[in-house]
Amino acid sequence: xxxxxESGGGLVQPGGSxxxxxxxxxxxxDTRAIGWFRQIPGKDRExxxxxxxxxxxxxxxxxxxxxxxxSRDNVKNTMYLQMNNLKPGDTATYYCTxxxxxxxxxxxxxxKGTSVTVSS
Length: 120
What we know:
The chain is mostly beta strands. Helices cover 0% and strands 51% of the residues. The protein contains no helices and 11 strands. The strands form 2 sheets. Strands 2, 4, 5, 6, 9, 10 and 11 form a 7-stranded mixed beta sheet that branches. The mean pLDDT is 95.
């Protein structure tokens, strides 16, 4: 069965940090494009970070650049999103994904989503 197991979401105060994890099962993350999307309540799903296929290029949205870091561990077959200096506007459901490129339509595997709430 091909799926992700997500973990790491929760409630955090503004300025705090969280690290999201997605362990892939049934397929390999190695060589694939991997990314994180989020959906803020009432808004469309948006891409926030992606490592391109081959691993030689990484993109971040302007909203998270300098605060969030995407990474992967090929040995553990797991991808991560380190989120620092969190803001209330980062409150959203976060989705990990993997596919053939960083374009939304090319993402094949999706996690079920993990909720992040930034509030004092």
